[in-house]
Protein: AraC family transcriptional regulator
Amino acid sequence: MEKIPVRSLHTTAATPDAGGFCIRQISALTGGQDMIQELHRHDFYFMLVILKGSGMHDIDFTHYTVSAKSVFLMRPGQVHRLHLHAATTGYLLQFPASFYYPDQQPARLRLRQSAAVNAYYCAPRQWPPLQYALDTIWQEYYNRREDYEEMIKAQLSVFFTGLNRMQERDCRPGNDYRQEQLESFLHLLETHISTHKQVGQYAAMLHLSAYQLSAMTQTTLGKTPSALIREQVILEAKRLLLATSRQVTQVADELGYEDVSYFIRLFRKHTGYTPEAFRRLDRG
Structure:
């Protein structure tokens, strides 16, 4: 069965080693021409940092404008299409989840929190520490002195902390635990949505009751777990419809729906379009 085009680190990285981490300058990739990438997904974290330039970036069907001092951070599995104009400069970074302190819980939470937001537009006062971290990462990656990977990870921590400070967060006692549980729930949604669609299933994986899970999502996001499950189903359906040529019956089957008519009704209820109409709309 046709899959969404996936780009892996071994097919995209220009320089080996560094635990799968890679950083490149956008100008070296564009060669003075526009960069155009059609809809695809990655199996690694993908970060695009724009110093100056323009273009457009669609991430999971949300449209973002590319501008100076903007940052785009994508989680593994998200789909995107990209158009950068020729004069755009900046950095492209990519790395697997296993690179950035995989065994340290605070680091995992820091990265998950940053990657929960796909686009950041930095104010002038927010930019200098991010620029310094990027410049240091670039130098460490290409000079490759002793313990350069640890230096890269340390500067990534500075960068992600800078991004997280741009988010409006509830800093009251206990919020860090709720945030960690929320990020874990959202990660489970991305990896289990084809087989798990009941609130109780996710609550059990998080060692929570269904009531506790509901209270957590409504406190942090203002949404019920059921609503978040439906949103993830619709998002994955959109990914499959636009990034592959699968029949609607195949998309429904991939998402665990034996009743195709029910899947079509569900999709239409939450998008306003049938799956085929949604596909035609995107393709003009």
